[in-house]
Amino acid sequence: MNLTLDFNDPDLIADPYPFYEKLRTEKPVFRTNFGTQKVIVVSRFPDVAKILNDKDTLVNKLGTNKPDQFRNSPAGMLWRNAISRMDPPEHTDLRRAVSKQFTLKNLSFLKPSIEKITQNVFNDLDSTRIDVVDEVATKIPLLVICNLLGIPKDDWQKLQKSTDLFLKIFLPDRLSWEEVEDVNSASQYFIEYFSDLIKHTQKNPDSNLTSDLINGPLRAGSVSIEQLIGLLRGLFTAGFETTAATISASFLAFSKQKDQFEQMRFKESTIPNAVNEILRWETPVQAMIRYASKDLKLGNFAVGTGEALLLLTGSSNHDPMRYQTPNKINIFRDSTDHHAFGGGRHYCLGFHLAKLEIEAVLREMRNRFSEINLECVEIQRKPNLQFRSITTLPVRLVAK
User: Fold this and answer.
1) Which of 110, 153, 284, 358 is the most exposed place for a label (fewest CB within 10 A)?
2) CB–CB of 27/21 below 8 Å?
């Protein structure tokens, strides 16, 4: 069996699930080269869950707070100030300082505006034949996150373009020097942009999350300016990219499984389950890196202190030992333990917001359409297995 992992392989990006199945069956845990480092690849649900929830695993190499590739660079500044790339005690302190802003209770006030934005986007569709990515999936999360953070509409395009370059940062050991420069260029743009946004908001406070973070944890001294820049960058890229990917996946899923769409149309109460199923089925982040801070075992496989673990969340979410017929969605299944939002102390800070947006989209789909028909043979995706989101998705919508 070929155990080479090439995250740029077009065939693997198009359909990684047969490869994942072979790994889970034949080599569920193994060592291999991955870019400039050796990693232990982990593909089964219980093993991935164990690492994600293990308090003795880290997101950085032992004794570091950023990769060597990003030393003394804009990317390094954003890495060490990103809550998703922090280890304790910094992670614990920052998460405690900002977590109350992201509880379901504190975000529930956004539900009416999210529903209104979603309704307006669907109202503006001028044809039954649409490109889901351009006309729905990109627009809704951009409108929501930019309104939430107080980002002007004129800035969206450049921020979106920089996001595509920046997302390469999360697997630094497989980057070429040219890609490192791309990441640094995008990082510098984000640093300058969100520094200016903070200064503008300090002078012109408003009823948005940026103002709340400035008047709350920043003013209290529990968050630094650099940490706030890192937090706003993370909210924008995660709040836009992963939610947009899942909205596109919703249309793909229901065009392929019309019986599931019919069931959701018949029973609105299935929508929360459907959100979790689509997140599981088309995991927006297919892989994550962790490091062992002490020796541990995955079954009989020994992991040494300091070793890197490449967690294939796209594979764990398709493990038949956990989910029966995993390659199909089942909106009656309880899949709340999926790994689309990570796990443990690094469980996605904004998962409530993402779910509110996706639920609003599914509700509009259910209320407006009787059928969704795919109008392409091959699905076009971004050339990166970790973030293999759909780039164009032509469909024909049949109104109720």
Assistant:
1) 153
2) no
User: Residue 159: which of 392, 393, 167, 124 has the closest Cα?
Assistant: 167
Task: Report pLDDT digits (tens) over 65-89.
Answer: 778 888 889 999 998 998 888 899 9
How many folded domains does the chain comprise? Answer: 1
Element (H, E) at 156: helix 156-166
- Does the residue 5 lie in any domain? no
**Do the domain assignments include residue 3?**
no
Q: CB pairs under 8 A, 24+ apart, for 29-34?
A: 29/298, 29/299, 29/301, 30/3, 32/3, 32/4, 32/5, 34/5, 34/171, 34/173, 34/174, 34/308, 34/310
CATH number, domain containing residue 369: 1.10.630.10
pTM score above 0.90: yes
Cα–Cα separations (whole angstroms), residue 307 to 39, 292, 300, 302, 398:
7, 6, 16, 10, 52
User: How far apart, in Å, are the Cα atoms of 269 and each of 50, 109, 334?
Assistant: 31, 21, 13
Residue 1 in domain: no
Helices 225-256 and 139-149: angle between axes, nearest 10 degrees: 160
Token representation of residue 248: 């596109």
